[in-house]
């Protein structure tokens, strides 16, 4: 038996979706930095060229992940994409390959939808990844590297993420200490726009807190740090103001919310210090959130009137409770992702079968016209009503003959048969490619 030849693109050859990537789970930050493609997505330096089986490509490069998505024909396109990625970074493909994960077709689609819905992030439900994904898509579209498959895939990823945020509470609860601290401040102060916040310390926790404060509406941020230059760098990043550490207590008088996260070995703020600050403030309330270990704020500060003090243990209880809630909501979100993946894969199957369905319908139309023409020539002159009736009958018969093969193409006769095999079988059986080894067409003459 002759082996089945691969289908040509024009004959509905199946396009595949491939994803290769590395993230915070598969590679350390120095590896992610080495293989970052964030600066290589301009049209003139796009690292993944068309050809070699690659028809479309997309790149997502953030601090936590680098992922390359391609649509093409054949698994060699994955290797080519990997080689171009490594070459763009001046590295060996063998080194890169050891850090990467790979997904194909349904698994690739599920991964993209999961990432867009923030279910694959370090902090489940964080909102930044969707914005990063949209910006990456804009770059790919501007570079004309995406096409019908990846365009639809990414738009469906965006709508899936919207469904997850609308139909679940996966992003509604604080899941980091810094975020929980700011959420606590919002509960106490309500509208935050008219208040001043001070960060004491300028490390990673303070940076996250500053980001959340801005998102909460705070318009004025002060940064006090023992190393003034580091504090000034963080202040510039968030349009804030650096404060000299030796003037800390003078500036606390104008501060409503204080978030401390220094590495000091013992408390740097005591009740006696804050008594003087409160006098200058005319006893307007102050809110202290101490997320340092050891603690920056002595417990006796909490004994003062109009002072609210929370330490990391208070916040950790909030975080743990909300993590459990978010995990429950994540299960609902994954169910939504599964629904959307199924819908997309059905579209992909239809995309693969559509050229064959069109060819099959046109074959039926051609037979109708040929046989109707022969019949009318044998009958001789007929009126328009008779001609229309004959045409309607022949077309109806063609549609009925077409129904079962088209249903077979879309749904399959056996569960084990994948769309490419169904397509190839139908195209050979009905000679849609003029295959010389297909069953011969024999015209049957009716005996007179």
Report the sheet with the most strands, covering strand number, pairing sense and barrel closure: 6 strands, parallel
What's the level 1 CATH class of the largest domain? Alpha Beta
CATH topology of the largest domain: Beta Polymerase, domain 2
Number of H/I helices:
14
The count of DSSP E runs of length 2 or more, i.e. the number of strands, is 10
Gross CATH architecture of the largest domain: 2-Layer Sandwich
Tell me the β content: 5-15%
In which order are the strands of the major sheet placed?
7-6-5-8-9-10
Helix content: 40-55%
Rg for CA atoms: 32 Å
Distance from first to last alpha carbon? 39 Å
H-E order: EHEEHHEHHHHEHEHEHEHEEHHH
Total of domains: 3
Low-pLDDT parts are 1-12, 435-448
Structure class: alpha/beta
Mean pLDDT: 85
Going by CATH, the homologous superfamily of the largest domain would be Glutamyl-tRNA reductase, N-terminal domain
**Quaternary assembly:** single chain
- Global geometry: elongated
Keywords summarizing the entry:
51% helix, Rossmann fold, alpha/beta, six-stranded parallel β-sheet, Beta Polymerase, domain 2, 448 residues, elongated, four-stranded antiparallel β-sheet, 14 helices, disordered N terminus
Quick structural overview:
By secondary structure, the protein is an alpha/beta fold.
What is the element layout, followed by pairings?
Layout: E1 16-23, H1 29-34, E2 54-61, E3 65-72, H2 76-88, H3 93-97, E4 101-104, H4 106-116, H5 128-142, H6 148-167, H7 177-189, E5 196-200, H8 204-216, E6 220-225, H9 228-237, E7 241-244, H10 248-252, E8 257-260, H11 271-280, E9 286-290, E10 307-311, H12 312-379, H13 384-411, H14 419-429
């Amino acid at each position: 038996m002759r082996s089945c030849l691969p289908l040509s693109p024009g004959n509905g050859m199946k396009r595949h979706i491939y994803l290769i990537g590395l993230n915070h789970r598969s590679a350390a930050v120095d590896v992610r930095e080495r293989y970052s493609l964030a600066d290589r997505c301009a049209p003139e330096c796009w690292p993944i060229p068309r050809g070699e089986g690659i028809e479309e490509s997309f790149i997502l490069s953030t601090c936590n992940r680098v992922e390359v998505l391609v649509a093409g024909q054949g698994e060699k396109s994955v290797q080519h994409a990997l080689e171009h990625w490594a070459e763009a970074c001046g590295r060996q493909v063998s080194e890169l390959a050891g850090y990467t994960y790979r997904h194909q077709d349904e698994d690739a689609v599920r991964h993209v939808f999961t990432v867009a819905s923030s279910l694959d992030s370090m902090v489940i439900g964080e909102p930044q990844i969707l914005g990063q994904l949209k910006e990456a898509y804009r770059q790919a579209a501007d570079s004309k590297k995406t096409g019908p498959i990846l365009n639809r895939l990414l738009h469906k990823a965006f709508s899936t993420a919207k469904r997850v945020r609308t139909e679940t509470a996966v992003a509604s609860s604080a899941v980091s200490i810094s975020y929980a601290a700011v959420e606590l401040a919002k509960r106490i102060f309500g509208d935050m726009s008219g208040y001043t916040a001070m960060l004491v310390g300028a490390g990673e926790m303070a940076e996250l807190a500053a980001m959340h404060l801005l998102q909460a509406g705070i318009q004025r941020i002060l940064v006090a740090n023992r190393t003034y230059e580091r504090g000034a760098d963080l202040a510039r990043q968030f349009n804030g103001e650096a404060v000299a550490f030796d003037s800390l207590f003078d500036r606390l008088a104008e501060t409503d919310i204080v978030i401390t996260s220094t590495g000091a070995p013992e408390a740097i703020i005591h009740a006696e210090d804050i008594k003087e600050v409160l006098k200058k403030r005319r006893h307007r309330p102050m809110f202290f959130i101490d997320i340092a270990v050891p603690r920056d704020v002595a417990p006796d500060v909490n004994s003062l009137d109009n002072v609210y003090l929370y330490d990391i243990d208070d916040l950790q209880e909030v975080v743990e409770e909300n993590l459990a809630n978010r995990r429950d909501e994540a299960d609902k979100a994954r169910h939504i992702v599964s629904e959307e993946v199924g819908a997309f894969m059905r579209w992909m199957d239809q995309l693969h079968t559509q050229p064959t369905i069109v060819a099959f319908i046109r074959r039926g139309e051609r037979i109708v016209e040929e046989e109707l023409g022969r019949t009318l020539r044998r009958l001789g002159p007929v009126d328009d009503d008779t001609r229309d009736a004959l045409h309607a009958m022949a077309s109806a018969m063609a549609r009925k003959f077409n129904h079962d093969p088209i249903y077979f193409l879309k749904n399959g006769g056996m569960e084990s048969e994948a769309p490419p095999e169904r397509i190839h079988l139908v195209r050979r059986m009905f000679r849609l490619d003029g295959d010389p080894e297909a069953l011969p067409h024999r015209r049957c003459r009716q005996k007179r």
